[in-house]
Amino acid sequence: MTKHQVLILGGGTAGITVAARLKRADRDLDVAVVDPAKDHWYQPLWTLVGAGVTDVEETRRDEAKVMPKGVTWIQEAVASIDADGREVTLANGETVGYEQLVVGLGIEYDWDAVDGLRDAVGHDGVVSNYTPEYAQATWRELQAWTGGRMLFTAPAGQIKCGGAPQKIMYLAEDYARKHGLRDQTEIVGAFAGTVMLGVPEINETLNGIVASRDIDMRFHHELVAVDADAKEAVFRTTGDPDSERIRIGYDLLHVVPPMRAPAPVRDSDLAVVEGPHAGFADVDHATMQHVRYPDVFALGDVAALPTAKTGAAVRKQAPVLVDHLLAHRAGRASDKAYAGYSSCPLVTGYGSLVLAEFEYGNTYKPTFPIDQTKERWDMYMLKRHLLPQMYWHGMLRGLA
């Protein structure tokens, strides 16, 4: 069995950002990253891929090119985690030991939780911007659009980028309007939640946008099946498995799949046992250190933190986690604390965006000296051009 001082599970946003920061802090530290992926994706741009603004290749880099120098890359999937034994078993059967473990395995799409979805998605009007392949299908469907009903869903439970389900809805509405098809197009949002966004200041803005654009929002709608032959989506009342089923026809259906913690985490002793964060890594909300295993840390989508699962959250979590991990190794204390910051750049049309920034408790926390509750062109340009550069050349290098 090989062993590393710091073993990082996951080579996505969280894992690479932490690895880069650790190596910048201590170039001699033995850091290994476990991930089989050959591609690294900047996922926030997939919304714009689905709307035809950018090409999917702009969102991709070779994983080898973003791996920090001096880091050992173990190109295997994680099979299981033994926190008591301080070892991780890989998909090939090998085990890797660690002194400290950082879990950044992200979140898992559960396509099979919705009956018929796995077979339906990607063709015949059923799309999803949550993978690069299906985002391209969204754009193909928009280009072929001649009228009918566009239906957009959002599941119950934990998901990555909670604003993404409505971003494509606004862009599709704008597309229909710009192409003279709005009068022939019905826009329906059938969401499992109760509000557009949990931040009151931003929710008020979004309610106004929905009303002014004649978008039919239907809350408490949890998708349970896709009847592709009938071109109908089947819903139940959120949280009530015995409720009467509601069928809504569609010509274009954008689905956000239900999501859950990755199996190696939810099946381990690291997981929260019950409640809304069940299955996710049970970490301290301020430090990202595990509440029962002090040599284990977790961040990003896999962590049971009561804030939105976004790359912006990782950007604030990573430096705090790294400081606490290094302090723990050195036997000292750290006073760094993560306040729950996350942000959601809500694209509301081609060239407009509302930037929602908030901390724990959905407390509105804007960082720009402007009115961020308004739709703005400059914030759209921030998302389209500046944030990707910050990601590739800042976050993944441990600089931002």
Question: What do you see in this structure?
Answer:
The protein folds into 2 domains: 2-107 and 261-340 and 393-397, 3-Layer(bba) Sandwich (FAD/NAD(P)-binding domain); 109-258, 3-Layer(bba) Sandwich (FAD/NAD(P)-binding domain), CATH 3.50.50.60. Helices cover 27% and strands 26% of the residues. It has helices spanning 13-25, 46-50, 63-66, 117-120, 132-143, 164-178, 200-212, 263-266, 311-330, 377-393, and strands spanning 2-9, 31-34, 39-41, 60-62, 72-74, 78-82, 87-90, 95-103, 108-109, 126-127, 148-154, 185-191, 216-218, 221-227, 232-237, 246-249, 252-254, 259-260, 296-298, 342-349, 352-359, 363-364. The strands form 6 sheets. Strands 1, 2, 5, 6, 7, 8 and 19 form a 7-stranded mixed β-sheet that branches. A 5-stranded parallel β-sheet has the order 10-17-11-12-13. It has a 3-stranded antiparallel β-sheet with strand order 14-15-16, with no helix packed on it. The two termini are 35 Å apart.
Number of domains: 2
Helix/strand/pairing class, anyone?
alpha/beta
Q: How many angstroms separate the termini?
A: 35 Å
Supply Rg.
21 Å
> Roughly what is the average pLDDT, rounded to an integer?
98
Strand content: 25-35%
Global geometry: globular
| Count of DSSP-assigned helices | 10
CATH architecture of the largest domain: 3-Layer(bba) Sandwich
Helix coverage percent? 25-40%
Q: Residue ranges: pLDDT <50 for 5 or more in a row?
A: none
What is the number of strand segments? 22
CATH fold-level name of the largest domain: FAD/NAD(P)-binding domain
Highest-level CATH class of the largest domain:
Alpha Beta
> What is the makeup of the main sheet?
7 strands, mixed
According to CATH, the homologous superfamily of the largest domain is FAD/NAD(P)-binding domain
